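new request in #modeling-help
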Amino acid sequence: MAAWEQVLDELVQVRGHALARYAALLTGDRQDAEDLLQDALVRCFGQARPLRDAIAAEAYVRRAILSVFLDGHRRRTRWSGVRHLLARQDSVESPESSTADRVSVEAALATLRPRLRACVVLRFYDDLTVPEIARRLGLADGTVKRYLSDAVAQLETLLGPVSTSPDQQESVTVQEAR
Amino acid sequence: MSIDLTSALHDAVDGGTPVGPAPVDLPRVRSRARRRRAVHLGARGAVGVGAAGAVAFGAVQVVGPRDARTVLPADADAVPGACGSTVTSLLGASDPTLGLGVSTWSDPDALDTKHVRAPGPLGTFAGDSVYLDVVSSLPADGAGTPATEESSLRDTLALLEQGYAERLAAQAAGEDVDQAEIDELAQIVESMRASAEAARDDGVPSPPPTPVARVRVLVTYDDRVVAATTIPRDGQSDADAAWDRTVAGPTVRERAHLPLETCTVDGVGGDPLPSGTYDVLVARDAGAGVAPTAVAGPWTLVVPPRVGAVTGLPDGFPTDAVPMPPGRLLEVSGDAAEGWTVQIAVEGDDRFTVGADLLDDVPDAVEEYRAPTGARVLVPGWAVELRSGTEGDVTTLRYSVAPL
């Protein structure tokens, strides 16, 4: 087995499910996410000089997931499919609250327009700055700020109050929920 | 309580425990990546473009979740393209002179394949075989000026030069292109250029045109051939094969009947293919026991998971006289006196053909008509009309069963 194939196997074995869940944040659908992940893996490992390090490969694959997604590949709105999952949070903390957050946030994300969804994922999962997101998506900084603001506002209408970490406040001004 | 987006997203991605099978079909990813790499690296140079008189082959690759009980053929010593062999060495740029499509014999909704089709999905097929149309635009298959060894080499050289130029341009544009790759491509191009010039100088004669294009459909998993069929069939006369052949303008179309079962190695084979996705390749070969010289594809073909027989039909429904393919009951109405209307969910673009064949196979059945829009079959005691359709994302069959 070639070296790149070993890296591919290791990456899928160790981080395959996490990568699929990452893709699902963008697609809103697990099956579409797996297709998206597969295309991203082929794109990364099918290049003439393939990846040879699993850790570095994960970052490349995540980037490829975003690229393939934004290319419009199998991009579909899944609002109707996830509407029933939406539920505002209870005011009482419970041991399952983390899981509840995850279900609701994933479902709420799926209602965003693709570019808004991508901005949220890059900002709050990949921890990129606004200028980094702008470069990645080929947008102006101001556009990214507006997208993030709109996205967070839209999420709040579905999820209730949403908090962002303090260092993110400077670049994301959360507007009043509309 | 407010939701912390950062922690919620990290929890969503990294908080889960890896359970169940891998989220992607690794053999399929490996196979597609190898093919992509082969194209990048100009592996086409080692394959070449088919010359006049070549034999055409088609290959299908099995991917997707598999039934572990089925043992797929493997023969490490087999020539690429033969049952059990690996086809990795054949993969490269797709040969534009060969195309593949689903025959209307398997999918009544399939478009008539008159032109060389670019690789893409063929569909989902639940039956035990599928009819495919192989279309060739090679002169050897009946039209145009016969290709020669020299023209074949020059075509290959042009493809390689194009790939080389693209990688050079990418490097010049600042992309991360390894110099070793550039050097390797340069060597391949130079070698092919020398071969083309030598062929021109030597005046290598063209082999005689082959009157019948021989097309083999191969099924592989992880780049390994696991099933195959050939047109014309072994021992089939040209006159017989001509019934499956249509010359339309510059192309020749031939119908291949591909059993969806494993091919045989050392007497072992003949099992239904496990569910999964199959990539279809088409290649040309110089003859038996020799590796194909060019490959086109992949197209994709899906075998759906096997499901149980339809359950839930009411007492009195003539299940013996009206057999149905495996599926799920969606609705049923009627009675034995007035007749029945049944709708079932069935996977497969060939569901109509599969359902109609089952009715035809009932003893003493008489098929009154079969058309893309439906079929009517008289079985003992009942007249059955069959239609295929969809309900949202669900593919269906609708039976109207009337007493005779």
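bot summary: The beta strands of chain A are 162-163.
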